[in-house]
């Protein structure tokens, strides 16, 4: 993995939402309560923090979560987030960083597994209307398709542009469409796991985005 060398001034920055921009993890408990009892018991046994070290495939194996439940849980996650929209806050430091990036004329976008209406409501609630477009996926595993659609819509160049996310799947999605990745270690997956997927850059706090030599 390279040291951070900087982002070209013409770069477009595409952000994941949950865990990257929105600090949504305090609402993991109501989400976990939707899981089967044996899965909840295993999560409590292993510990939520330790689970950040595992990929989705490994989580299924470790917790015994039935694969067939994943699409249902995806929809429940969206509902829980929407129901708690007024309570969810941005990741500490993220709003000022995003406004500074916008001030520096970087085009900012969001591609998310959450619903577009919910994300737009969050941005409005938190006075974060600095994004040119917000695009939502239809499921957990089609983020690369939405990235491609956004790139085609806005003429985004793969040579200079970045997807910024907290999940190893964000790295995989970006690789599929040929753009670079800035992984963030304050969200869903731990630094240890993210390093295994070799993102272009890996940062531990939002302010590091502003420390890049432009």
UniProtKB/TrEMBL annotation:
Pfam families: HAD_2. SUPFAM superfamilies: HAD-like. GO terms for molecular function: phosphoglycolate phosphatase activity. InterPro entries: HAD-like_hydrolase_sf, HAD-like_sf, HAD_2, HAD_sf, PGP-like_dom2. GO terms for cellular component: cytosol. GO terms for biological process: DNA repair. This is Carotenoid oxygenase. It comes from candidate division WWE3 bacterium RIFOXYA2_FULL_46_9. The lineage of its organism: Bacteria, Katanobacteria.
């Amino acid at each position: 993995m390279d040291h951070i060398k900087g982002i070209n001034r013409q770069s477009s920055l595409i952000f994941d939402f949950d865990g990257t921009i929105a600090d949504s993890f305090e609402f993991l408990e109501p989400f976990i309560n939707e899981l089967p009892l044996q899965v909840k018991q295993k999560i409590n046994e292993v510990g939520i923090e330790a689970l950040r070290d595992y990929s989705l495939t490994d989580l299924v194996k470790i917790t015994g979560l039935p694969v067939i439940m994943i699409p249902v849980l995806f929809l429940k996650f969206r509902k829980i987030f929407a129901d708690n929209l007024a309570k969810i806050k941005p990741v500490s430091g993220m709003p000022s960083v995003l406004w500074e990036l916008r001030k520096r004329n970087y085009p900012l976008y969001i591609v998310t597994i959450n619903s577009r209406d919910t994300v737009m409501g969050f941005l409005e609630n938190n006075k974060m209307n600095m994004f040119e477009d917000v695009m939502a996926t239809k499921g957990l595993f089609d983020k690369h398709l939405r990235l491609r659609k956004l790139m085609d819509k806005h003429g985004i160049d793969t040579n200079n542009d970045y997807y910024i996310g907290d999940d190893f799947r964000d790295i995989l999605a970006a690789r599929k469409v040929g753009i670079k990745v800035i992984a963030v270690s304050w969200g869903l997956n731990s630094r240890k796991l993210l390093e295994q997927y070799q993102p272009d850059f890996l940062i531990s706090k939002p302010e590091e985005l502003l420390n890049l030599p432009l």
